[in-house]
């Protein structure tokens, strides 16, 4: 390599290093916003599933005299309830993952 090529390489590396903080800031922002959007969508999905589970539970109560059908509605409502519980746990972890880079940045600044 010639001295001119080495100088150009060093200039390129230095300019990339200067742009790095703004790029990292954008990446952290995109990561946090992505986590919050995913948490919001999963919250909407869990609300819809809990409403459907409520409707199945209500149908099970109405058809309780017919043992097989009523029991089937309760099983479906229970399975949907477990799915909603899992989704709520995922939403909590999603929100905590969204706040973790912000928390670490604040911790480093103080």
Describe the protein in words.
- The protein is 94% helix and 0% strand.
- The chain has 110 residues and is mainly alpha-helical.
- It has one domain.
What is the helix content? over 70%
Number of strands: 0
- Roughly what fraction of the amino acids lie in strands? under 5%
Query: Secondary-structure element order, as H and E?
Result: HH
* SS summary, helix count: 2
Main sheet summary: none
- The stretches of 5 or more residues where confidence is low (pLDDT under 50) are none
Question: How would the blueprint of this fold be written?
Answer:
Layout: H1 3-62, H2 67-109
Helix pairs in contact: 1-2
At a glance:
The protein is mostly helical. The protein has helices at residues 3-62, 67-109. Helix 1 runs antiparallel to helix 2 (67-109).
Task: Tag the structure with descriptive keywords.
110 residues; mainly alpha
């Amino acid at each position: 390599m010639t001295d001119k090529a080495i100088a150009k390489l060093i200039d390129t590396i230095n300019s990339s290093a200067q742009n790095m903080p703004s790029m990292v800031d954008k990446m952290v922002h995109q990561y946090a916003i992505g986590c919050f959007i995913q948490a919001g969508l999963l919250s909407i999905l869990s609300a819809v599933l809990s409403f459907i589970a409520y409707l199945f539970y209500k149908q099970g109560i109405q058809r309780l005299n017919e043992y097989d059908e009523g029991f089937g509605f309760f099983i479906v409502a229970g399975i949907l309830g477990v799915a909603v519980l899992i989704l709520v746990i995922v939403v909590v972890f999603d929100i905590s993952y969204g706040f973790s880079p912000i928390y670490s940045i604040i911790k480093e600044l103080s």
